[in-house]
Amino acid sequence: MYVSSDAEGAVAEYFRRHPELLPIQEAVALRVFEMELTSQSPLLDVRTEAGAAAAGIILDRLTSSDADPALRYEKCHALADRTETAYPGITWPSAAYSDSIYCVVLFGMNRDRWDLDLVIEIPKPTIDAARVRLIEAA
Questions:
Q1: Is there a contact between 110 and 42 (Cβ–Cβ < 8 Å)?
Q2: What percent of the residues of the chain are helix, what percent strand, and what percent coil, each to the nearest 5?
Q3: CB within 8 A of 49, min separation 6: which ones?
Q4: What's the CA gap between 49 and 67, in Å, rounded?
Q5: How many CA atoms lie within 13 A of 95 on its CB side?
Q6: 62 by DSSP, 3-state: which?
Q7: Alpha-carbon distance 42 to 30, whole Å?
Q8: CA–CA dist 76, 3 (Å, integer)
Q9: What is the DSSP letter of 67?
Q10: pTM of the model
Q11: What is the mean pLDDT of residues 114-128?
């Protein structure tokens, strides 16, 4: 499961991949949900230079906007592959929007290491299009 710490971050993740829709974002039908998640143990936290270095990844790779998906995600996928058995998930800075927003990937679709306690639909926020970090053009 892939989530954002903030509704704006979640919407920015969508528009990062669909920038052509940013000018008409009010008309785009996106559903946003607030969730309360609990984990059985701490997540791997790579939101800082020190956390990323301790996990063996460069912080800039976590927020890459490289046009080539293989380059953009290769190091992140490798980090997930080598830590999936040790952690229920990873917390990292949002590549899409703001330095104060972070994203979380939770491992294990059978949810044996984390629980989803609350899910409610919330209003879709309007985001500042100038702040969305777009994926570079090929």
A1: no
A2: 35, 25, 40
A3: 59
A4: 23
A5: 20
A6: helix
A7: 31
A8: 15
A9: S
A10: 0.87
A11: 93
What's at 3, amino acid-wise?
Answer: V
pLDDT at 70: 86
Structure tokens at 74: 């290769």
The reported pLDDT for the residue numbered 29 is: 96
Do 127 and 32 touch, CB atoms closer than 8 A? Answer: no
Four-residue CA torsion sign, 51, 55, 58, 60: negative
Question: For the chain, where are the E strands, in sequence order?
Answer: 2-4, 32-39, 44-45, 89-93, 102-106, 114-122
Place of tokens 């879709």: 124
Tokens 């990844």, located at residue: 57
User: Residue 105 in contact with residue 90, Cβ under 8 Å?
Assistant: yes
- Element housing 28 (H / E): none
Q: Which among 1, 45, 83 has a CA at the least distance from the CA of 75?
A: 83
30's tokens: 């996106």
Adjacent-strand bridge partners of 121: 33
